[in-house]
Amino acid sequence: MSNRNVLFTVENLDPELFWLTNYAETILMHTWSPSTVATGSRNSKNIILNALIKSGDPAGLPFKLHDFGFRGVSSVETAALAGAAHLVNFMGTDTLAALDLVLQYYCGYSPNEIKNMNNEQYASFVKTNMPGFSIPASEHSTITTWGENGEIDAFRNILDAYPTGLVACVSDSWDIDRACSGLWPSLKKNIEKQDGILIIRPDSGEPTEIVPRILDHLYKNIGGEVNEKGYKVLHPKIRIIQGDGIDHDTIGDILEAVMDERFSIDNIAFGSGGGLLQKVNRDTQCMAMKCSHAVINDENIDVFKRPATDPAKNSKKGRFAIVKDGNRLITVPEANAENYKGGNQLVEVFRDGKMVKEWTFQEVRDRAELPQMQNA
Fold it and tell me: pLDDT tens-digit profile of 88-101?
C-alpha cells in the first residue's frame, strides 16, 4: 500500500473534549509496527509468488516465509502484534505470542481454554482455527554436541528421531559444502525411508552464493528432476530453508540467484527474524497522524501543514475516504467517495469506547490476498 494513504481517521464527538483527538496520536504506538510488518510481509509475498509462477508451484506460497523473529524484538507485545501481522500473509511461524493474540482476539479462545481441551477437541480446534504452524527443527547445539567428527551421526539421529512429517536440520556447524556434497548424500537411503521431507538449513555465508551452491550439491549428489517450466527440482524428500540475513530486500536477490542457476523456487523457503519483525520503524512507511479538519464556532476548516524546508512532511487537508481504483487503494476527499465503485472503504470500528465492527482473521487474510493468486 502506498505510504500516502489514509489508514484510519479519528473524530471527536464530544465538543467539551476537543483536545482529546490529538492525544489519540499515541495510538500509533499500537498500529505503526503491525501495519509496517504486514506491508513488508505482503511485498515479500508478491516477490516470492511471481518467482513461483515463473519457476514452480504457487500452491506452496503460504509457507515460503517463516517467522523466526520472537527473540529479536523488544517485547512480548511487539512479538504478538508484529507476528500476527505477518500471519495475515503467511502461515509459518515460531512466534508463539502471535498465535496467542490471533486465537484470543480473533477466534475467542484463551490460552487456558486451549490447554484444557482433550485430544479430540484440540485436533478439531487446530484444523479449524490455528492461524500458523511450525515443524521440529535442530539448532546448533543439538549438532555441535556430537563433535565435528560426529556430525553425520547427529544428522542420522535427526532422521531417526523424526521419521514422519517435516524436520529441519541446521547443517553449517562446520562446513555446509561438505554437509551437502558428502554427509547428507551418504544418508540418501535414510532420507528416502522418511515419510516426510528433510529441510536442510544453511545459516552463514553470502546467501546469493551459498543457496545456489548447496542446491547444486544436493541435486548432483542426491538427485532431482527438471519440471515442466524448465527448472530443476530437488529429490522430493529434500528441501532447504534460508534463515540467515533475510529481509524484504535480500529475498529478491536470492530468488534471482537461484533462478539464474535454473533452480525452481519450489526448492527453497525463507525464515526471517529481526529483518521481518524489528528492522522497521515509524518512518519506514511514513506513519504519522495529523489534524486535517476542525469545526470552530460551527465553521468547518480544513487544516494542514506545508513546511518550506521539507515537502515530504506536507500533510493532507480535509475529511478523507479511501477508495478502490482498479487494484489500487487511493485516498480522496470524503465527498468524492461515491464516485468510485464500492464507495468509502473506511468503516466505523469504535464509537464511544465500544467496538462496533469486528472481522475474523480469515476475512483479514482474504482482503490482503494478492490479485495474481486468482490466476496462479
Answer: 999 999 999 999 99
**Cα dihedral: 328, 331, 332, 338 (round 10):** 50
Segments of the chain assigned to CATH 3.20.20.70: 34-277
Distance (Å, whole) CA 63 – CA 115:
26
Which DSSP symbol is given to 44? H
CA–CA dist 351, 235 (Å, integer): 56
Could you give the residue ranges of the DSSP H alpha helices within 56-187?
Answer: 76-87, 96-105, 111-115, 119-129, 140-144, 151-161, 176-178, 184-186
Of the options 3.30.300.20, 1.10.8.60, 3.30.300.30, 3.20.20.70, the CATH number for the domain spanning 34-277? 3.20.20.70
Q: Name the residue among 342, 296, 348, 304 with its Cα closest to residue 323.
A: 342
Q: Using alpha carbons, list the distances in angstroms from residue 269 to 10, 22, 148, 272.
A: 40, 43, 27, 10
Return the C-alpha torsion angle 160, 162, 167, 168, nearest 10.
Answer: -40
CA dist 334 and 242 (Å) reads: 46
Q: How far lies 351's CA from each of 15, 17, 98, 322, 361, in Å?
A: 15, 15, 27, 20, 22
How many Å apart are CA 66 and CA 95, to the nearest integer? 10
Q: Which set of grid coordinates corresponds to residue 261?
A: 542457476
User: pLDDT tens digits, residue range 235-261?
Assistant: 999 999 999 999 989 999 999 999 999
Please check the confidence at residue 40 and state whether its pLDDT lies above 90. yes
Listed residue (281, 280, 323, 311) closest to 6, CA to CA: 323
Question: Where do we find the cell 528433510?
Answer: 198
For 68, the 3-state DSSP assignment is coil
Q: Which helix (H) or strand (E) holds 195?
A: strand 195-201
Query: Which residues neighbour 78 within 8 Å (Cβ) at sequence distance 6 or greater?
Result: 33, 277, 278
Q: Computed from CA positions of residues 110, 346, 45, 75, in that sequence, does the dihedral angle turn out positive or negative?
A: negative
For residue 149, the one-letter residue type is N
Amino acid identity at 322: I
Contacts of 98 (CB under 8 A, 6+ apart): 67, 79, 80, 82, 83, 84, 86, 87, 131, 132
- CB contact at 8 A, 268 and 242: yes
pTM above 0.90, yes or no: yes
